[in-house]
Write a structure and sequence with these properties.
single chain; mainly beta; Immunoglobulin-like; 2 domains; 5-stranded mixed β-sheet; 4-stranded mixed β-sheet; 4 helices; 26 strands
Amino acid sequence: MFDRNGSTFSSIIHAALLLASLMCAEANIANPRDAQTVIGVKSSTGLPCDSKKPSFEEIHKFAGFDSGQSVERYSATGRVVDVLTAQPVAGAHFVYGQPDNSTNNGGFVSFAIAQANNLGEFRLDHLVPGHYALYISSSLDRSDLYSDVLNFDVIDADVANLEVQARHGSRLSGFVVPAGVTSSAVLATLSSVKVVAAVPSIGNLRVGIANVTGISPDGSFQFTGLRPGKAFINLKADSESLNGLSIMRIERNSGELKQGIEIKPGEDILDLRIMVADGTGLIRGQVKVEGGTLPAGVRMAASISNQLRFANGYAQVGEDGQFVISGLAAGTYEITLNAYRPPPQQAVRLLPTLKQTVRVTDANESSVVFTLTLANR
């Protein structure tokens, strides 16, 4: 997942975990391999025309393409064009990789980022035989362009004349309304909160790239370049003091919308009202690891969402296995525990997701204990 405002890795993980918690509920993901793309983040940016950047072979290893075996490798070449003007799109970034299977029914097993040159042309080297998928996301270039998935197969020869058709996406805008915010400190810093919009599937291919935008002083926000599909809306904040800020509901034309707003091709949605609230509830958690130790470098994070499936916060699990999420409005929450490995490895889910339901009340502390069993792993 990529933050179009250039945020740090920790904030990218934050947005990814929020999306992951929703995607698990939407798609009933049980297999961690199926969900890798859901919380995958950019491990490196490959610019084929810039020798100062990491070569694709290096990115290959970061993304998990290199199995360590000596196999024949091939290249794929093509171009990116604007579907309206038929003109090349200079410098467009795109995601490509190997889906879980040939029908794209799942996420990427491994992926990387590449960029077209100033003529809209690209070349991907060191490809092992297999099935590949490629697409443009507006969040990579802060543009209004996206593409459908372009599928291609590498068998026993180079692949040429690929054409990625870039399309102009939809706008989504509105206002964040702090109707239920009781803390003056939270209200004063609301402008530092970001709004996240993610359309997490392209057909059967589940992806983890989200668009992130800021909130203006008047409470307004705007996205451009959203692809058709169900858009999941959430909040993201880098400040721990804003953890727990909750979306209570989303309205349009005075009617309430459910999570997963349907965006039709060419449709602009310009009148959303995101009603937010905070609270004084707190969740204190403990993670117990049994049957072994976590692999070196692995980290754990807990994220929560309310009954309306709006994400409400996250916390890194400390070395002592403890975490705290505060500022929660009263209600019932689902808390999700994920283990991941940060860059230079992909930040993909490494172990099965654990979930629990927790009831939170104002001015009280709720506790939760996760037991992570590593036996036979």
